[in-house]
Amino acid sequence: MMRLTFVIFVYALMIWPALGQTRIQPAVMYEAGEHIYGAQSGAASVVPQGWVGLLPRDSEIFLLMPVTGYNGEIYVLADSGVTEEQHKQAWLAGLELDNGNVLRSDGKIFKRNGNLASFARLDEPTEPLTAYIEARCGPHGYCLSALLLADPAHQEELLPGLYAFMDSLRWRAPNQGNEYAGFNWRDFLAGKHLINYAHVRQGKDESDLWLCPDGSFRSRLKRTGLQKGEAGAYKGTHQGTWQIEDVGASGILRLNYEKLPPLEVEISIKDDRVFINGNRFLVIRAENCN
Question: What is the mean pLDDT of the chain?
Answer without folding.
Answer: 81
